[in-house]
Write a structure and sequence with these properties.
alpha/beta, Recoverin, domain 1, Alkaline Phosphatase, subunit A, 18 strands, globular, four-stranded antiparallel β-sheet
């Protein structure tokens, strides 16, 4: 009996030591964030990102880092699985989550290796109150200034899934919850997926962040700078906390964008913070969100692991967000077959000179592209372009007529890859896609829209507000409580409805009064 007890204790100790040797992994994911819009890129001088500067200095900036799609939902599906999202039935926003719900996520895998897992911020992959069904022990689904579903507190204590009231700017709130998770799990290997909703619209930075960017500039640019700076604050707080907990050398951090910035071609400084240009920039890259040009898919991509990855690097070979997922699994001792990402540590440590991928592929809404080495073929049903990214990352010179052999080779690669996907290849662009290609790639510059078509701030008519108030004021006492406003609704719509209520509660006294109808 003592012998078997000894073996049991030895096995438990071995498991503990193995878990203790595994590094923590943090993936920070930003939203509609242009490739040059981080200080380490050295392009725009109006940014204030000292902590991202320090992150890059302590590790590596990948100049040719990509998302797997030029849009939010598919790029997140790819990141969470390590697979091209086209293979799992999530090719674009609006896709059914039925197939994604059947996938084993990297969080699922890491849990089997002894990791504690957490999701914080924007989810966008189905029901926001069921994130724990995708491998996450802890979650705090916050992507706006409204209540959020979550299952842990700022003390790091796990609770039943519930709606947490909105108290502070959503980016700052997400950072605070990230710190709470790290402190609570300091003695366990952990995986943290921190997905900030910034600088994605609605542009909603509070005055304290806006005041950091005085002077004349487009107001949408000021908002984007403030939101990027707020994320930078979070990065600084995380790295400082890791340092205090002696976890710096035990933690691998990725900072990656989900796709390029939406410029809406003209970067109109439209009033309000709603739909339109988000204030971020892609130049000198060509194109924007919704395109498979470099401006749509090349993103901020920083990596640090002090003591393991040499510091101060600028890595110029192509990598993709899927690689972050697979690298994390590799470090956990997991070799999962049939994934599309690669473990890129050998490249980052200088042990391997070859590119991590023989080629990278994309397909999105009528567009498809392949990059092999420095050559990139971009096509849709009727147009095709060949670029040498080594000399033309701006994609201004279409070399397809000068290099027909290379174009044919890449086209064959792309055909073979598309044939492996579950759906037939797309044949044509959307109407908006054609406008974008005309403007950015074919020199048919689009004129500014008529003034009447420019984005205007929306105002809810008082008549509509009165009708809504009357419908919610069931007891006809001239006041609507939050419970009356929600009126028995449940599920994912509750945070949105609650946010609307708090915006109508001008006096901030917990009730919407008739005198507050605007």
């Amino acid at each position: 009996m003592k012998f078997f007890l000894f073996l049991s204790l030895l096995s438990a100790a071995s498991h503990y030591l193995a878990a203790a040797e595994k590094p923590n992994v943090i993936i920070i994911y930003t939203d509609d964030h242009g490739w040059p819009d981080v200080g380490p890129a050295g392009i725009h001088q109006d940014l204030k990102t000292p902590h991202l500067d320090a992150l890059a200095a302590s590790g590596v900036r990948c100049t040719d880092g990509y998302s797997s799609a030029p849009q939010c939902v598919p790029s997140r599906a790819g990141l969470m699985t390590g697979k091209y999202q086209n293979r799992i039935g999530v090719p674009a926003n609006g896709s059914s989550m039925e197939t994604f719900n059947k996938e084993t996520t990297i969080a699922d895998h890491l849990k089997t290796a002894g990791y504690t897992t957490a999701q914080i911020g924007k989810w966008h992959l189905g029901k926001g109150n069921q994130i724990d069904q995708h491998g996450f022990d802890f979650f705090y689904n916050k992507n706006a200034n409204r209540p959020a579903y979550g299952n842990f507190t700022l003390e790091g204590e796990k609770v039943s899934t519930q709606l947490f009231p909105h108290k502070t700017f959503h980016l700052d709130d997400c950072s605070e919850h990230a710190l709470a998770f790290i402190k609570a799990q300091k003695d366990n290997p952990f995986f943290l997926y921190l997905a900030y909703r910034a600088p994605h619209v609605p542009l909603d930075a509070p005055q304290k962040h806006l005041d950091r960017f005085p002077g004349k500039m487009p107001e949408r640019r000021r908002q984007a700078l403030a939101m990027i700076a707020a994320m930078d604050d979070g990065v600084g707080a995380i790295t400082e906390t890791l340092k205090k907990l002696d976890l710096t050398k035990k933690t691998l951090i990725f900072y990656i964008g989900d796709n390029g910035a939406p410029l809406k071609i003209h970067k109109l400084d439209a009033p309000g913070g709603g739909p339109g240009w988000d204030g971020s920039l892609n130049e000198p890259l060509n194109g924007e969100k919704g395109m498979l040009t470099e401006g749509g898919i090349r993103v901020p991509f920083l990596i640090t692991w002090p003591g393991t990855i040499p510091s101060g690097q600028v890595y110029t070979r192509p990598v993709i967000a899927l690689d972050a997922s697979v690298t994390a699994l590799h470090l956990a001792g997991l070799n999962i077959p049939d994934l599309d990402g690669r473990n890129i540590l050998p490249q980052l440590k200088g042990d391997v000179k070859e590119d991590a991928h023989p080629a990278l592929y994309w397909r999105w809404v009528g567009q498809a592209t392949v990059r092999r080495g420095d050559w990139k073929l971009l096509r849709n049903g009727t147009r095709a372009y060949l670029f040498d990214l080594a000399s033309d990352k701006e994609e201004k010179k279409n070399l397809i007529k000068k290099n027909p052999r290379i174009a044919a080779e890449l086209s064959k690669l792309l055909d073979t890859w598309e044939a492996s996907l579950p759906a037939p290849k797309s044949s044509s662009l959307t109407k908006q896609g054609n406008i974008y290609f005309d403007h950015y790639l074919d020199g048919k510059l689009q004129s500014l829209p008529a003034k009447a078509n420019r984005v205007k701030p929306k105002k809810a008519p008082a008549v509509a507000a009165e009708k809504l108030f009357k419908a919610r004021d069931k007891n006809k006492d001239g006041q609507v409580t939050l419970e009356e406003f929600i009126a028995g609704r449940t599920g994912d719509k509750v945070p949105t409805i609650t946010g609307i209520f708090h915006r109508r509660d001008l006096n901030k006294n917990g009730v919407w009064e008739k005198s507050e109808i605007k």
